[in-house]
Design goal:
This protein is mostly helical and 113 residues long. The protein has helices at residues 6-13, 16-24, 36-46, 49-62, 67-75, 101-105. The chain has six helices and no strands.
């Protein structure tokens, strides 16, 4: 028997709430995620289990799985928007004033030009 029956409720909503809760465990006050769990599940009663599932999915994608983040996603209706993929990092532009790692790894003292 589960000592914390609310964990089972999280699984009934969908796969995202349990994932979100697991990711919030290290940052919860006790390190177990349990204080976060009832609060997040209560949001499902206020908004709907479907919206809570979508909000938790967005929170997981954004790595923002705190109670406050999930609540904000629901309050601002961001759960209905697609998550934008992160843009790949751009390579540094070529410019005569930009020095590469070779300049600093040379072992020679810098010279003034």
């Amino acid at each position: 028997m589960d000592a914390f029956p609310t964990r089972g409720l999280a699984h009934k909503i969908g796969p995202s709430p349990p994932t979100c809760l697991r990711r919030s465990w290290p940052v919860s006050p006790t390190g177990t995620g349990l204080p976060v769990l009832p609060g997040i599940l209560r949001l499902g009663k206020q908004y709907s289990p479907t919206r809570l599932e979508a909000a938790c999915g967005r929170a997981v994608a954004l790595q923002a799985c705190s109670y406050q983040s999930v609540k904000s996603i629901l309050k601002c209706n961001l759960d209905s928007l697609p998550v934008e993929p992160a843009e790949p990092a751009q390579a540094p532009s070529e410019h005569p004033n930009i020095r590469g790692s070779e300049y600093f790894d040379s072992g020679e003292p810098p010279t003034l030009q």
